[in-house]
Amino acid sequence: MAGVFITFEGGDGSGKTTQIRLLQKWLSDNGHTVVVTREPGGTDLGNELRDIILHSTGFIAPRAEALLYAADRSHHIHTLVRPALERGDVVVQDRYFDSSVAYQGAGRVLDATEVRELSLWATERLMPHLTILLDVPADVAKARQLGDERRFDRLEAEAQDFHERVRESYLALAEAEPDRFLVLDGTVSVESIHEAITTRVSDVVG
After folding, report:
1. DSSP conformation letters of 146-157
2. Per the CB 3.0–4.6 Å rule, which of 13, 50, 123, 174 could disulfide with 77?
3. pLDDT, tens only, 68-107
4. Domain ranges of the chain
């Protein structure tokens, strides 16, 4: 495929939304056609699944939750991401399968390898060219969220130890695939993070 696939990962409150917006502008200003999307969501079906996954008030079994994410991911990649990459666009995506490994694998204490393989099967093993991990301690991320004055979704509302496991899982994933991951300290200035991102993305998009 002619395009470039860039994903952003990190715990809730890590600053992904801000950095994605800045990267989108930088890429557009440099002449690239950019598609910004997210998981769960990104399509009409995905938004319906997102509402179920994140805002359902009833219990969802951990394996069922993982399957719902995989269903969203499969449809999203097939209908939106692959076509954009085949056109030669740059796809910038908020969360991908690493989120499932961290949140459903480590957070829900499922088998991380099984969760990863489920997502790879669902997406026909589509891998990002670059994954940017914004690393923020769980207590700092929680403090940021409390300042947002909004209702937490099902995952954001989980206990501190859940989010600590998620963070540790992310760092382990990045350590295992250093060529794919760019790990950045999400507690430094927005400008410093953006500069580090654009420096690395320049090498990827050419």
Report:
1. HTT-S---TTTT
2. 123
3. 999 999 999 999 999 999 999 999 999 999 999 999 988 8
4. 4-205
CATH number of 4-205: 3.40.50.300
d(CA 90, CA 28): 10
As a whole number of angstroms, the distance between CA 54 and CA 56 comes to 6
- The pair of structure tokens assigned to 114 is 């099984």
Contact at 8 Å (CB) between 136 and 11?
yes
Q: How many Å from the N-terminal Cα to the C-terminal Cα in the chain?
A: 15
Residue with tokens 């769980």: 138
How much is the mean pLDDT over the chain? 93
Q: Which long-range contacts (CB under 8 A, 24 or more apart) does 173-177 make?
A: 173/98, 173/101, 173/102, 173/133, 174/131, 174/133, 177/131
Task: Answer left, alpha or beta for residue 93, where phi above 0 means left and psi between -120 and 50 means alpha.
Answer: beta
The angle subtended at Cα 190 by Cα 185 and Cα 196, nearest 5°, is 60
Q: Which residues of 76-101 are buried (b: 16+ CB within 10 A; e: fewer)?
A: bbeebbbebbeeebbbbbbbbbbbbb
